[in-house]
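Incident log, support desk, overnight shift.

02:14 A customer reports that sequence design results differ from what the structure should imply. Their input is reproduced verbatim below. On-call engineer (initials T.W.) acknowledged and began investigating.
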């Protein structure tokens, strides 16, 4: 019986999958390791993308990014997060980090960027001077370096912002226009708001005055005044008159003259007469004048009435030219209708 049970147990034992002896394992490891090393050596030479071919760089090396040439400066600014989301990108860094609930204040220097998302609220404070810029909703600003002649802060994207500035402080608005506060005392708040996609509104809610250098104009805001600033594709920064030898400023009208132009005295605004070819630029316009032509620049909203000819050779038609059209005359009055009496025998 014992011999029969041993025979049955030998039949049940599988013949496949027997454990190899320990002496054979090192012999098998060497071919496996060689195969793995061969595959690893061929991987760098493999091209996993055959069609379409991988994109080739347009330029080598790559162009400088937005932070090129904007290293850290001497400005000391504290960023305060009042509500999420707010992100900060330090000078020279390649990315921004969010400001969490446990870190509501961050100290940054010149060249730093501050991003404020929808529903967010952030404040930039210069603790040594008392400057403050409050940002609401979608906004993006960059801290400037005044030692390099830059504005104290550059507003790149603004939904709404409150500005509290000191005398001599320059803030760059979206588009490039430059804002300055009261030249004698601390002033603010000045509320900057985007009312349309391409229009900014600046409201002076302070007791001081403010000014905006917009293209070739200087707009001054008294307390309570509001100005709308269009955003143009060509930019809204100050445009100095390059090559203009003469600059005329009469009240709010500022023009630059270049060429054979003569200034007419005793008239509102600025009026010039061209003795030859010339160019006059002002109030966002550049006018090319030929000999005998005139250009008259007046403040916005001012109406200029008819004037008498100042120079008959210029303002009146020359001899032999087409006669002027006759002045319109009033139409003759309509005749009064007469009443005709009916015959005596026929009464109504």
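02:41 Re-run completed on a clean worker. Output:
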């Amino acid at each position: 019986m014992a011999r029969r049970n041993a025979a049955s147990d030998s039949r049940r034992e599988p013949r496949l999958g027997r454990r190899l002896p320990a002496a054979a394992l090192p012999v098998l490891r060497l071919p496996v390791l060689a195969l793995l090393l061969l595959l690893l050596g061929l991987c760098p030479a493999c091209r996993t993308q055959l069609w379409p071919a991988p994109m080739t760089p347009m330029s080598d090396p790559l162009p400088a990014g937005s932070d090129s040439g904007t290293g850290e400066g001497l400005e000391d600014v504290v960023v305060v997060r009042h509500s999420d989301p707010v992100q900060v990108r330090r000078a020279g860094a390649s990315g921004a980090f969010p400001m969490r609930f446990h870190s509501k204040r961050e100290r940054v220097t010149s060249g730093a960027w501050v991003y404020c998302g929808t529903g967010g609220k952030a404040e930039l404070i210069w603790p040594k001077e008392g400057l403050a810029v409050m940002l609401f909703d979608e906004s993006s600003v960059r801290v400037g370096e005044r030692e390099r002649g830059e504005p104290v802060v550059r507003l790149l994207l603004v939904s709404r912002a409150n500005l509290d500035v000191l005398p001599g402080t320059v803030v760059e608005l979206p588009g490039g226009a430059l804002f300055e506060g009261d030249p004698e005392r601390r002033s603010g708040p000045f509320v900057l708001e985007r009312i349309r996609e391409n229009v900014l509104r600046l409201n002076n809610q302070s007791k001081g005055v403010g000014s905006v250098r917009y293209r070739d104009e200087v707009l001054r805001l008294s307390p309570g005044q509001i100005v709308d600033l269009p955003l143009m594709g060509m930019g809204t920064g100050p445009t100095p008159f390059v090559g203009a030898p003469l600059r005329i400023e009469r009240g709010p009208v500022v023009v630059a003259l270049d060429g054979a132009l003569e200034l007419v005295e005793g008239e509102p605004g600025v009026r010039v007469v061209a003795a030859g070819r010339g160019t006059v630029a002002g109030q966002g316009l550049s006018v090319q004048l030929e000999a005998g032509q005139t250009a008259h620049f007046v403040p916005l909203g001012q109406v200029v009435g008819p004037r008498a000819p100042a120079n008959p050779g210029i303002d009146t038609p020359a001899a032999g030219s087409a006669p002027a059209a006759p002045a319109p005359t009033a139409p003759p009055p309509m005749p009064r209708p007469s009443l005709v009496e009916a015959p005596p025998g026929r009464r109504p």
